[in-house]
């Protein structure tokens, strides 16, 4: 395999995990062992393992090492929606307000797994339909994956719409949960504290590199998630 060494290390480790050579729960070699095996720097090995963690193939445990992740069962794969396009398609007036924008360093291990160089664009915004709040969004964008995002006026352009157009993804993960609105969320969504909401957490990657992580909170009575799929082997 040609290309950067960390991509070859990534491909080698990925192959051993996906083939079952390394079973779920098994510790993979320590970083210093991989450094010796590949004759490279620890930073190069760390880069490859960070990409594996970003894809959910391994989990890191402080002082214990890195382990092959347990497989997860998912009920269905959902398309990534463009809220602006969905609202307009329903014949409603779309509204959008940027609440906060700041560039910062990754502050947790999960954020470091998302951003290769540690730099994140941290956004909060509110989407509405016909003047009624539709979704409260908190989004992190890895500037190493989408450096142009630093120059986009997200006071005008919704980040989700921009990313779908400008930073195509190759892999995505959705997590869906029922939650109760906390006081700050309830105020922005026009709800009572404790009201039922739907929360969608989404992460996307491009060729193993993290692109974005977003949390969208919807009032429970204003949004449906629908997935259509069949039992056939083909993908449509």
Automatic annotation (TrEMBL):
<dbReference type="InterPro" id="IPR036390">
    <property type="entry name" value="WH_DNA-bd_sf"/>
</dbReference>
<dbReference type="Pfam" id="PF00392">
    <property type="entry name" value="GntR"/>
</dbReference>
<feature type="domain" description="HTH gntR-type">
    <location>
        <begin position="3"/>
        <end position="71"/>
    </location>
</feature>
<keyword id="KW-0804">Transcription</keyword>
<dbReference type="InterPro" id="IPR028978">
    <property type="entry name" value="Chorismate_lyase_/UTRA_dom_sf"/>
</dbReference>
<protein>
    <recommendedName>
        <fullName>Histidine utilization repressor</fullName>
    </recommendedName>
</protein>
<dbReference type="InterPro" id="IPR036388">
    <property type="entry name" value="WH-like_DNA-bd_sf"/>
</dbReference>
<dbReference type="InterPro" id="IPR011663">
    <property type="entry name" value="UTRA"/>
</dbReference>
<dbReference type="InterPro" id="IPR050679">
    <property type="entry name" value="Bact_HTH_transcr_reg"/>
</dbReference>
<dbReference type="Pfam" id="PF07702">
    <property type="entry name" value="UTRA"/>
</dbReference>
<keyword id="KW-0238">DNA-binding</keyword>
<dbReference type="InterPro" id="IPR000524">
    <property type="entry name" value="Tscrpt_reg_HTH_GntR"/>
</dbReference>
<dbReference type="InterPro" id="IPR010248">
    <property type="entry name" value="His_ut_repres"/>
</dbReference>
<keyword id="KW-0805">Transcription regulation</keyword>
């Amino acid at each position: 395999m040609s290309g950067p060494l960390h991509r070859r290390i990534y491909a080698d480790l990925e192959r051993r995990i996906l083939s079952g050579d390394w079973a779920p729960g098994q510790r993979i070699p320590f970083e210093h062992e991989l450094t010796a095996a590949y004759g490279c720097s620890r930073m190069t090995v760390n880069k490859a393992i960070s990409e594996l963690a970003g894809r959910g193939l391994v989990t890191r445990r402080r002082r214990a090492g890195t382990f092959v992740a347990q497989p997860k069962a998912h009920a269905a794969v959902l398309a990534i929606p463009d809220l602006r396009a969905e609202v307009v398609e329903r014949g409603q007036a779309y509204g959008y307000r940027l609440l906060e924008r700041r560039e910062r360093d990754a502050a947790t291990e999960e954020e470091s797994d998302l951003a290769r160089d540690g730099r994140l664009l941290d956004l909060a915004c509110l989407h509405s339909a016909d003047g009624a709040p539709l979704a409260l969004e908190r989004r992190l964008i890895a500037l190493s994956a989408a450096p142009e995002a630093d120059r986009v006026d997200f006071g005008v352009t919704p980040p989700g719409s921009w990313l779908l157009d400008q930073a195509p993804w190759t892999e995505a993960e959705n997590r869906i949960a029922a939650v109760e609105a906390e006081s700050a969320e309830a105020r922005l969504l026009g709800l009572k504290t404790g009201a039922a909401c739907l929360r969608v957490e989404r992460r996307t990657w491009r060729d193993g590199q993290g692109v974005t992580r977003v949390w969208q909170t919807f009032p429970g009575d204003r949004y449906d998630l629908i997935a259509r799929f069949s039992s056939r082997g083909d993908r449509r």
